[in-house]
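User: Run a structure prediction on this.
Assistant: Running it now.
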Amino acid sequence: MRLKALLVDDEVNILKNLQAVIPWDALDIELIGTARNGEQALELAKAMRPQLILCDIRMPVMDGIEFLGALREFDTEAEVIMMTGYQDFSYVRSVIRYEVKDYILKPIDYEELVETIKRLAEGVRERSLEQHSMQQEWKQVFHLAYEKVLYDQIVDLGGSSGRPFVKLNELESDNLAFAMMLIDVADYSKRERSWDDKERKLWNFAIQNILQENLTAFGVSYAVLQVRSGEWCILIERNPPDFYDLQLCLTWAEKLRQAVESYLKLSIRVALHPSEVCLKQLAKTYKSLQRSLNLSPSANTSVIVSEKVRGNADTSQHLWDRIEEMVTGLKRCDRHRTETALKELNDSFRLLPETSFERVVPILHYLCLHLLREMKEMEVINRDEEVAVWSQIDQHQGIRETLLVINRLMDHSLEVVMKKKTSDVLMLSARDYIERNLSAELSIDLLAEYLGISGSYFSLLFKQHIGETFVEYVTKQRMEMAKSMLSLSDKSVTQVGQMVGYVERRYFTRVFSKYTGMLPSEFRERQQNQVGSEPPAWTNHEESVK
């Protein structure tokens, strides 16, 4: 960190000597100016904000004591070294209240002065690092709180047992609104079946990072919320004097789609809401985007603008609402609500005329896929059960057979959900959050805050349910993700480290070496030698730094 210094003395020769004799560049300090009296120094200090000031006491116009008093009115952090003669020793007592850290007697001992400057500069840098660290921590806490509020609004689960980070009315205002889009992996159900758990995490991680990188490049305030595997809700803040520009939002959406396809060779579908969305409308708009993305005739186009689904709108809306009720009931462990919605779904089909069956079957087929995907996200079905249900759905059976699949799925899900303990749900949420935020700062306190429990209780639950300490688990997840990224991408070692939460390459290398017994570059080289000339799964178009 390069510091800024200001020299203040009415004697020209002393100013020249200070500029020439002190090794400013070697100390990584920039001289931003000199002043012959306190008034000149005050103007420079206000404009340039130096961290280090060398100041004489006796000067014309405004002396050093007056300058210090005026300086401390707007800058309490700058380090000041007073330069004084023996005859001015009586002044020293008067500068104590201005937090002067040191003084130098004239004639100046330049070796002593260099050591004093070096010591104070190190103190400034240490404090700056501490402040930066605290700012980053608070920024992360606020971002975590902010995203949790948005996520809770989107999934709309109702009450929470944990205390909220941020009261909704602190975020709600007439000015806060969002451009909202939903991104989903094309043919997700087929891809999910071909991915094992490690591959699923890797692809989800890679897509989220590409979305975040490109949104950052747009220069906007945003949140990328992974609502479920393979699906992300993107919220871009729109505040006055900004306004909602549909064409600009379409451009952003298309760039995101192209970025994922270019880097990952993976197709995604994007649905964009045509107008700005306020906080209270997030849940309703999210469901609307889901319907548009999957039930609209134009759903296979690059980017679709959400609109009311025509043709079977009334029927599809009613069926969708019943499925949503069942999902919400399961998430809230509300058996009555879930069973009521299931009964209403079955009754709806008994009342349908036979002539409607043919056009309703595709809708029901998708709704069944949607329901299964939600069950997978809640971990109420295992891999084998999931594959078996998908196999049944893919047979494109009629309404009766598809309804039977849904009824069996719901019966099984209810049984599993009702057996889950509160602690199981908490740890499921913890693991999900860790998986979605490997690149961010993760700590016991942050996760405990997120779940609304104490840090000690969180640590106890985590060890009991996961079988590892929090640090062990997070390190393992990050290292396994890093191994995948090194094997399948051409991102540099530094980039990979940052993507899995390590800002400094040196620290990432040390942790990776301890975990694998190899340097990251050695691991990558070994993996590339094993696969020969086969190209990586995605590339960064940047030169790889090993």
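The chain has four domains: 3-129, 173-305, 313-419, 422-531.
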